[in-house]
Design goal:
Length: 143
Protein backbone atom coordinates (compact mmCIF):
# COMPACT_ATOMS: atom_id res chain seq x y z
CA UNK A 1 0.00 0.00 0.00
CA UNK A 2 1.29 3.44 -0.93
CA UNK A 3 0.77 6.50 1.27
CA UNK A 4 2.02 9.63 -0.51
CA UNK A 5 3.23 12.15 2.06
CA UNK A 6 3.87 15.85 1.53
CA UNK A 7 4.63 16.78 5.14
CA UNK A 8 1.11 18.15 5.68
CA UNK A 9 -1.51 17.47 8.34
CA UNK A 10 -3.64 15.91 5.60
CA UNK A 11 -0.89 13.42 4.77
CA UNK A 12 -0.47 12.65 8.48
CA UNK A 13 -4.22 11.96 8.70
CA UNK A 14 -3.99 9.59 5.71
CA UNK A 15 -1.05 7.76 7.29
CA UNK A 16 -2.90 7.38 10.61
CA UNK A 17 -5.97 6.11 8.72
CA UNK A 18 -3.90 3.56 6.78
CA UNK A 19 -2.16 2.33 9.92
CA UNK A 20 -5.46 1.99 11.78
CA UNK A 21 -7.57 0.48 8.99
CA UNK A 22 -4.90 -1.77 7.47
CA UNK A 23 -2.68 -2.83 10.39
CA UNK A 24 -1.26 -5.84 8.54
CA UNK A 25 -0.51 -4.07 5.26
CA UNK A 26 3.01 -3.32 4.12
CA UNK A 27 3.01 0.46 3.90
CA UNK A 28 5.32 2.49 1.72
CA UNK A 29 5.28 6.16 2.64
CA UNK A 30 6.27 8.05 -0.49
CA UNK A 31 7.54 11.62 -0.60
CA UNK A 32 8.16 13.56 -3.79
CA UNK A 33 10.61 16.45 -3.64
CA UNK A 34 9.36 19.02 -6.09
CA UNK A 35 12.01 20.72 -8.21
CA UNK A 36 12.66 24.16 -6.77
CA UNK A 37 9.26 24.29 -5.13
CA UNK A 38 10.26 27.49 -3.35
CA UNK A 39 11.90 28.89 -6.50
CA UNK A 40 14.96 29.86 -4.52
CA UNK A 41 18.35 29.20 -6.02
CA UNK A 42 16.65 27.98 -9.23
CA UNK A 43 19.25 27.66 -11.93
CA UNK A 44 22.03 28.72 -9.58
CA UNK A 45 22.59 25.89 -7.17
CA UNK A 46 24.84 23.03 -8.19
CA UNK A 47 23.02 19.73 -8.66
CA UNK A 48 24.86 17.69 -6.03
CA UNK A 49 24.28 20.29 -3.35
CA UNK A 50 20.59 20.47 -4.23
CA UNK A 51 20.31 16.67 -4.16
CA UNK A 52 21.81 16.62 -0.67
CA UNK A 53 19.31 19.26 0.46
CA UNK A 54 16.45 17.28 -1.12
CA UNK A 55 17.56 14.07 0.59
CA UNK A 56 17.84 15.86 3.94
CA UNK A 57 14.38 17.36 3.53
CA UNK A 58 12.88 13.95 2.66
CA UNK A 59 14.59 12.40 5.69
CA UNK A 60 13.16 15.16 7.90
CA UNK A 61 9.68 14.33 6.56
CA UNK A 62 10.30 10.66 7.28
CA UNK A 63 11.31 11.40 10.89
CA UNK A 64 7.76 12.63 11.49
CA UNK A 65 6.35 9.63 9.63
CA UNK A 66 8.37 7.24 11.80
CA UNK A 67 7.02 8.97 14.93
CA UNK A 68 3.42 8.45 13.76
CA UNK A 69 4.08 4.77 12.99
CA UNK A 70 5.89 4.21 16.28
CA UNK A 71 2.91 5.63 18.20
CA UNK A 72 0.89 2.59 17.08
CA UNK A 73 3.82 0.17 17.29
CA UNK A 74 4.13 -0.13 13.52
CA UNK A 75 6.87 0.34 11.00
CA UNK A 76 6.74 1.62 7.44
CA UNK A 77 9.03 1.67 4.44
CA UNK A 78 9.96 5.06 3.05
CA UNK A 79 10.81 6.10 -0.48
CA UNK A 80 11.36 9.46 -2.08
CA UNK A 81 11.75 10.71 -5.62
CA UNK A 82 12.33 14.00 -7.37
CA UNK A 83 9.76 15.57 -9.70
CA UNK A 84 6.20 16.79 -9.99
CA UNK A 85 4.20 14.84 -7.37
CA UNK A 86 1.10 13.99 -9.39
CA UNK A 87 3.16 12.47 -12.20
CA UNK A 88 5.80 10.80 -10.04
CA UNK A 89 3.20 9.11 -7.83
CA UNK A 90 1.34 7.67 -10.83
CA UNK A 91 4.62 6.50 -12.42
CA UNK A 92 5.65 4.84 -9.15
CA UNK A 93 2.34 2.96 -9.08
CA UNK A 94 2.99 1.70 -12.61
CA UNK A 95 6.54 0.56 -11.79
CA UNK A 96 6.06 -1.02 -8.35
CA UNK A 97 3.85 -3.77 -6.95
CA UNK A 98 1.36 -1.49 -5.19
CA UNK A 99 -2.23 -2.66 -4.75
CA UNK A 100 -3.80 0.39 -3.09
CA UNK A 101 -3.20 4.07 -2.34
CA UNK A 102 -4.30 5.99 0.74
CA UNK A 103 -3.69 9.71 0.52
CA UNK A 104 -4.76 12.96 2.07
CA UNK A 105 -6.50 15.79 0.30
CA UNK A 106 -6.71 19.43 1.15
CA UNK A 107 -10.29 19.40 -0.08
CA UNK A 108 -9.95 22.35 -2.42
CA UNK A 109 -13.00 23.25 -4.44
CA UNK A 110 -14.13 25.73 -7.03
CA UNK A 111 -11.64 28.25 -8.36
CA UNK A 112 -8.78 27.09 -6.09
CA UNK A 113 -9.01 23.58 -7.53
CA UNK A 114 -9.27 24.88 -11.07
CA UNK A 115 -6.25 27.16 -10.73
CA UNK A 116 -4.03 25.01 -8.54
CA UNK A 117 -4.89 21.53 -9.72
CA UNK A 118 -5.02 18.58 -7.41
CA UNK A 119 -2.46 15.85 -6.87
CA UNK A 120 -5.13 13.65 -5.31
CA UNK A 121 -7.49 14.16 -8.25
CA UNK A 122 -4.80 13.26 -10.79
CA UNK A 123 -3.87 10.12 -8.86
CA UNK A 124 -7.54 9.07 -8.58
CA UNK A 125 -8.05 9.56 -12.33
CA UNK A 126 -4.85 7.86 -13.49
CA UNK A 127 -4.13 5.12 -10.96
CA UNK A 128 -4.87 1.55 -11.96
CA UNK A 129 -5.40 0.57 -8.30
CA UNK A 130 -8.00 1.67 -5.74
CA UNK A 131 -7.34 5.08 -4.16
CA UNK A 132 -8.76 6.09 -0.79
CA UNK A 133 -8.84 9.83 -0.11
CA UNK A 134 -8.75 10.89 3.53
CA UNK A 135 -9.96 14.35 4.39
CA UNK A 136 -9.05 15.57 7.83
CA UNK A 137 -12.08 17.00 9.69
CA UNK A 138 -12.25 20.75 10.10
CA UNK A 139 -10.90 21.97 13.44
CA UNK A 140 -14.35 23.12 14.58
CA UNK A 141 -16.17 19.92 13.50
CA UNK A 142 -16.72 17.12 16.02
CA UNK A 143 -14.58 14.05 15.34
Amino acid sequence: MLVPHDDSEHADAALRFALEMFPDAELVVFHVVEPFAEHTDAGVEDGRRWQRRARKYANDVFDGVDDIAAAVDASVETEWRYGRPKYVIVRYLEEEDIDQVVMGSRGRSGLDRLLLGSVAETVVRRASVPVTIVREPQRDEPT
